Amino acid sequence: MSKISIIVPTYNVEKYIARALESCINQTFKDIEIIVVDDCGNDKSIEIAKEYAKKDTRIKIIHNKTNLGTFAARNNGVKHSNSEYLMFLDPDDYLELDICKIAMENINEYVLLSFSYVKINKNNYEIFSAKWKNWQEYLKIIKKKQFTPWNLCNLIVKKDFYLKQILLSFQNYNLIFAEDLFVFALLINEKIKSIEYVGYYYIVNDNSITNLDKVDEKLADCEKILKLIRNSKINLNVKKYYLYFLNIEILDCKYRLHFINKYYYKIIKIGFHMKKKLKL
Questions:
Q1: Sign of the CA dihedral 65, 69, 70, 74?
Q2: Which domain holds residue 144?
Q3: 83-96 confidence digits (pLDDT tens)
Q4: Which of 184, 206, 228 is the last residue of a domain?
Q5: Integer angstrom CA distances of residue 137 from 192, 194, 241
């Protein structure tokens, strides 16, 4: 059994998949498996992955029957994994070559370890970094910095915890966006921490599933997550923080200027119903 499974949901990324896989197979920590999940694209991404799999037996390719979307594809990869820990890599991004080694040296008794990441676009880059030792410190950082310095990709998490807490919570919901925030809400009261080590490179890709023409889906998923939170066992104080997190996610849509007119009233409506339904 490998120590770490790196899950790579793959859909129409033939220009980038080689770089992503190279960043996995060249990790200085070798006790890993790399699970490529074929999400039924129509380019040569999987053919490229198969060529890598011929050369490296740590690469396993899983085929979805239909296109499921990134989050569901990740979870299908998790179900086929055989390791103690999980990491996630979007195939148009790549990993720092020491990140698996650094992660294993630091996770210890924690269920989740978050690390810093770099967001890169055509003209510049931005480093997202924050150090915290527990969830209380994390909440303070969120309030202070006005952003959530993490996503599902810049972390390592214990597989048994992920299966128990996260897959069970999401099994009846098909989410495309905003799942990151709900996952972190489930981690409140758990042993989590962050290190200031850049381990992940997030490439802003105009053709990504998270690009601007997906705002409809993102707002719809915010509404789904509102229902998840309302029905969850998360305590009231944490729900108040979560409302704050979800507002950040919605505002991320609002301030993409060319969508303001089309989505403004829908955004305001969601914010109103969040307060009403959560009874805050």
A1: negative
A2: 2-206
A3: 999 999 999 999 99
A4: 206
A5: 10, 10, 13
